[in-house]
Amino acid sequence: MNRPVLVALAGKPGTGKTTLARGLATALQAVYLRIDAIETAVIRSGVARPPVGIVGYVVAHEVARSNLLLGKSVVIDAVNPVSDARKGWSVLASEVDVQLVMFETVLGDREEHRRRVAARLPDLAGQSVPTWEQVELSEYEPWATERDGPRSAIDTTDADAALSAALAHLGH
Question: Per-residue b/e over 106-131, b at no fewer than 16 CB within 10 Å?
């Protein structure tokens, strides 16, 4: 049996995290955990109203931990906008003794990023998707390796090329 790996994605909304995460989860036969799905379910249940804060991340950490301990690789689809969110995956990987691979999705073309955000439709019942203005104003700390740890930036302009690059980095 192959040793499980924790793959965590980070990046602003509309940069291709979900597309890349789904492709990775399929190729790796890994558990797919999407923070948007967790947060939407929490809001839909009436337990919290937006923004839900760290709730989605706390739930994802525990579900990821359970699956990693079962020997399953896990792919996390999350914005991970701040250092504490990014660090949490490192702590989890250390606690369960698995490799952590962080990918940050990036789009160099601002107009393509704007187009993707504007075209995005909710794909979960009750989900709210951000507008371009909300994405521009949202908190997203630029990555600092000394603070956030290592990561590989993946240009998602071409989804197939992005998936190939991420899989190559993972040795697949």
Answer: bbeeeeebeebbeebeeeeeeeeebe
The type of residue at 54 is I
In a domain, 172, yes or no: no
Instruction: Find all residues with CB under 8 Å of 152, minimum gap 6, and list them.
Output: 101, 102, 103, 104, 166, 169
pLDDT in tens, 109-157: 999 999 999 999 988 888 889 999 999 999 999 999 999 999 999 999 9
How many residues belong to the chain? 172
Strands 74-77 and 99-106: unpaired
* 8-state DSSP, 48: -
Helix (H, G, I), strand (E, B) or coil at 147: helix
Domain of residue 30 covers 5-167
